[in-house]
Amino acid sequence: MKKINKLALFANKSNQRLFTTILVILVLYVLMTILDGTGNLSSLMKGLLVPVCAYSLVAVGLNLCVGYLGELSLGHAGFMCVGAFSSAFFSKAFVGIIPDVPRFILSLLIGTALAALFGFLIAIPVLRLSGDYLAIVTLAFGEIIKNVINVLYVGVDSQGLHFSMKDMMSLGMEPGGKIIINGAQGVTGTPRQSTFTISVVLLLLAIVITYNFVNSRTGRAVKAIRDNQIAAETVGLPITKYKLIAFTLSAAIAGVGGVLYAHNISSLTATTNTFGYNMSIMILVYVVLGGIGSFSGSIIAATILTLLPEMLRGLSNYRMLIYSVVLIMLMLFNWAPGILKWREAHGIKNFKSILKSKNTKEVQ
Amino acid sequence: MSLLEVTNLGISFGGLRAVDEFNISIDKGQLYGLIGPNGAGKTTVFNMLTGIYKPTDGKIFLDGVDITGKRTAEINKAGIARTFQNIRLFGDQSVLDNVKIGLHNSFEYSTATGIFRLPKYFATEKKMDERALEILSVFGLDKDADVLASNLPYGKQRQLEIARALATNPKLLLLDEPAAGMNPNETKDLMNTIALIRKEFDVTILLIEHDMKLVSGICEKLTVLNFGRVLSQGETSTVLNDPEVIKAYLGE
Asked: B107–A245: do the CB atoms touch at under 8 Å?
């Protein structure tokens, strides 16, 4: 009985794609580990392994929002930011109090939960809007989160926690107290616990969860709302509930990316490039270039576009030039009608079957 | 007691009175027709019955329960399902999934069960698949279960919309111009399908239609709307011979 079940599982197309994605990630993981073990990995590349996974996670989260909920969010760096700072805060505050492993697990849970909570709270007002308005409001939320963290001072001493939004002095700390979040200087000295292995495990977990979600009863409802909200209502789907669930899950996954990011960097600051709109747009670029609705595509795009600037470092001045050319080529590969036709002829599945089916609908 | 009881229903859009003093009473098991010229307010009545528009005045009772002004999703749970004049399918999902979305409230498991694929997920999904295929087979759509809904030919899309509506297990089914854009043969098939689903699903049907052959062929009672008001109401043969109706709609 079990065997038949598994066979049926594998026969399912979307499951097949999931297994392929997992397999590819595992092969890359083994390859990187071997390269690292034999000393063939430059320190630059080595330093990028965890960030690649972190950005991939945020891109997977955003893809859930853009591709399946059908809403454009420009604030996912904000959720990453919440996950990063809350987990870094926890880890730093409890260094030496809780042993390493349980502390990291707890900080991961806290970072994820807080990002989810922020996602949920922001979704309540935001999901009443749609299209451009939603994009603008999420952009603003991302900026607000970043700016609040930039003026946040938190310290801990024998009397407990001290908060301030002014400066370090107004915390009124006892001598010997520990500053945890130091305004614009952010969090320094977070234990660096994000290993490549942990990152890959979390990435795989996120992919399995999103795949399962999208192909479950709830996921079908979310897609139905995306496809036609009025029809979804007339078959009895509670719209707000499912939009909230999808957006919250999307924010939570971005939060996991933030946790990984925070535990891989010695000095965590909230600047435009790390958590501001630049990063939000960057992640959106991963999602769009990788293919809206394709989780594996998001990961591929995030990987290529993160590694590329570093790999091209030798070309110094021409670096950004080549980077932009690659961006354009990726875009053509995914969107140009001629290339789509070529890909179809050669059996390279494209995510744009969605687009094509929309065109046929208009013809009819 | 009648299944649907509507009294003095009316709606205004700004200064425009789109529907006024609309009354209708539909018995259980009846096949009822709503006809009238374009712009008479037929679809507006459907939109009020399903909660897409909130009526300005009047009351709607379904099976004795007041559903006036309720949300669309709640009205569906109370027992009204509908199709649309301009087809509204979930185009990027398979035919099977479209019907399974209709089954959403009949077969439940939590989001967490779905994410972690607990045993209940497999059991419920299997039951949903079976039930969805059963419904599809009534329309002969079970062979197309894996096709993307938007890739279906027009006539099958209309049928799929009816199948999806029936999946929500309604007491009352509203069909908005089911024969629009169909040729005489397809219309004939549709008449058979409607007769079949009435029997198979034990459902009461209210339909809007311009095809007089279909209307006179299957509807037991009719209401004629003109400029938002009821022009004539009663047995099909009586209404179709009403001089007022002939003058306003059918043509002499």
From this structure: no
Cα–Cα distance, B178 to B130 (Å, whole number): 26
What is the full DSSP assignment across A162-216? EEESS-SGGG-PPTT-EEEEEGGG-EE-------HHHHHHHHHHHHHHHHHHHTS
Nearest Cα of chain B lies from the Cα of A10 at a distance, in angstroms, of: 14
Place of tokens 């109401």: B233
Asked whether residue B138 is assigned to any structural domain, the reply reads yes
Q: Which domain holds residue B138?
A: 89-169
The answer to whether the CB atoms of A216 and B115 lie below 8 A apart is yes
Instruction: Give the C-alpha separation, B178 to B159, whole Å.
Output: 8
Is the same domain home to B176 and B65? yes
Give, in order, the Cα–Cα distances in Å from A289 to each of A206, A249, A295, A303, A342: 20, 22, 11, 12, 18
Do both B56 and B176 map to the same domain? yes
Residues B121, B223, single domain; the answer is no
Residue A331 or residue A249, greater confidence: A249
pLDDT of residue A12: 62
Amino acid, res. A181: I
Nearest to B151 among A215, A224, A360 (CB): A360
Confidence of residue A13 (pLDDT cuts 50, 70, 90): low
Mark whether B179 and B146 lie in a shared domain.
Answer: no
Distance from CA of B104 to the nearest CA of A (A): 7
Nearest to A110 by CA among A92, A80, A87: A87
Of the residues B169, B194, B229, the one at which a domain ends: B169
pLDDT digits (tens, 9 = 90+) for B193-239: 998 899 889 999 999 999 998 999 999 999 999 999 999 999 999 99
Mean local confidence (pLDDT), B48-62 = 95
Statement to judge: residues B61 and B126 lie in one domain: no
**B52, B115, B153: residue with CB nearest A209:** B115
- Measure the CA–CA gap between A135 and A147, rounded to whole angstroms: 18
Listed residues B169, B191, B226: the one ending a domain: B169
Quote the longest CA-to-CA distance of chain B: 66
Residues in chain A within 8 Å Cβ distance of B90:
223-224, 227-228, 231-232
* Single-letter amino acid, residue A316: S
d(CA A358, CA B8): 41
The total number of structural domains that make up chain B: 2
**Residue B84 within a domain:** no
- B207 with B154, same domain: the answer is no
Backbone CA torsion sign across B158, B163, B164, B165: positive
CB contact under 8 A, A5 and B122: yes
Contacts of residue A238 in chain B, CB cutoff 8 Å? Answer: 73
**Cβ burial B148-162 (10 Å sphere, 16+ → b, else e):** bbbbbeebbbbbbbb
For residue A264, CA distances in Å to A85, A149, A193, B251 come to: 12, 19, 7, 79
Q: What is the pLDDT of residue B88?
A: 95
- Nearest chain A alpha carbon to B109: A217
Q: Residue B249 pLDDT more than 90?
A: no
Contact assessment for residue B187 and residue B213, using Cβ atoms and an 8 Å cutoff: yes
Measured between CA atoms, the residue of chain A closest to residue B168 is A235
pLDDT at A46 over 50: yes
Give CA–CA dist A141/A68, Å, rounded. Answer: 21
Closest CA to B187 of B195, B176, B179: B179
